[in-house]
Design goal:
single chain; 153 residues; alpha+beta; Aminopeptidase; seven-stranded mixed β-sheet; 4 helices; globular; Bact_Acetyltransf; GNAT family N-acetyltransferase; GNAT_dom; transferase; Acyl_CoA_acyltransferase
């Protein structure tokens, strides 16, 4: 299943592949997407970084990615990560890679001392909604939005 894939932190060399996959994610959602390499570089590697990213590769080929945005519940003293983008290339879907990417996001969040990961999805994407619930994410309103409380590592 997912043993054919390597999931790691995004590097500047990954930006061209992120642009292609981000545009494909936009097309999947019917958005007119035009990802900007300079903006992704600024947001992932600037001081301070605005986004955090993971990329999945199968050999040298891009297989998927996740972009995360820090969030917080200041009133509770809790840090979190919002999974802003998750994408798996179409011909590799159904092999557990999406689940592996989300698991890697959760591990990344734990390493940042985050208490939760949140995810939003398109209201019509019932498959994603079911997958998130199967992975322990609780539905939140307004939504569809989901949140998973993380146990300490």
């Amino acid at each position: 299943m997912t043993s054919d894939f390597d999931i790691r932190a995004v590097t500047p060399a990954d930006i061209p592949d992120l642009v292609v996959m981000s545009d494909a994610l936009g097309a999947f959602h019917g958005d007119d997407s035009n990802a900007c390499p300079d903006a992704l570089t600024r947001d992932l590697f600037g001081t301070p970084p605005w986004l955090r990213g993971l990329i999945a590769r199968r050999g040298s080929q891009p297989a998927g990615y996740a972009l995360m945005v820090p969030t917080a519940q200041a009133q509770h003293g809790l840090r979190g990560l919002n999974l802003h983008h998750i994408f798996v290339v179409p011909d590799l879907r159904g092999r557990g890679l999406g689940r592996a990417i989300i698991t890697a996001v959760e591990e990344h969040a734990r390493g940042l001392d985050c208490a939760y990961v949140s995810i939003g999805t398109d209201p019509d994407n019932t498959g994603a909604q079911a997958a998130y619930e199967a992975m322990g994410y609780a539905r939140r309103n307004p939504g569809p939005a989901f949140r998973k409380v993380l146990n300490p590592a």
